[in-house]
Design goal:
The protein is mainly β and 122 residues long. Helix content is 0%, strand content 57%. The mean pLDDT is 97.
Amino acid sequence: QVQLVESGGGLVQAGGSLRLSCAASGTFLRVDAMGWYRQAPGQQRELVAMITLGGTTTYGDSVKGRFTISRDNAKNTVYLQMSSLKPEDTAAYYCNAAVVPRLPPWTVNNHWGQGTQVTVSS
């Protein structure tokens, strides 16, 4: 069983910063890509940022230049440093991880965290 535990959400004023963390735990061979998605009320879930095992990053257009994704492979943890936050960044943020099981078949399974709320006040 794989668990993703997120932390770091909260309330912040516009222009402020927050750092989200997500740690993968359980029994698996390795964690491949990890990323963050967000979903605001009444809207579809959208990609915020993603990082591969090798460190290649991808960002959603709305966060480029403001958010930075990183990971610690030894801890199976992904981070999202959010700066210059705007009210439109308000959403539930979900961690996502592509996990390779310990035993064959080594089919990559997609896992989601429970979500952490980020609220940016104007």
